[in-house]
Amino acid sequence: MKHTILALLCIGFFATGQAQEISKDAIEATASQLIADFQLTPGQEEKAFEIAERQLKNLQEIQPLEAADQALFLQKKNAIRQGTWASIRQMLTDSQMPAYKAQLVERRKRESALIQQLKKEGASQKEIQLAVWALD
Description:
mainly alpha, 7 helices, flat
């Protein structure tokens, strides 16, 4: 009985591991976007691929939460986004920072517009927070 349970757990673990394989095309697309947005050097391109892979892996890991606990899913998704942006910032040079800052400003403007719209509609603070977390 113990061996059967252990075998089932191992099969489940390996099946889950294989199902969670991240598409190389998705990593390539995400990294290519970073490379283009920030005009990365060849040395930075390697880091961009690592950041892209980590981001996609983390997003894939929290995917089951989307149906089970939407608020927790959005909170974790936001934390992944913030961590990704921090990693990007660490690898950029001073000459690349204006592009980074411009994207952050654009994100803040979209958040602000969304918040103002939801306040006009009478949304609760929790609804507003969830909407901001859901913003891509």
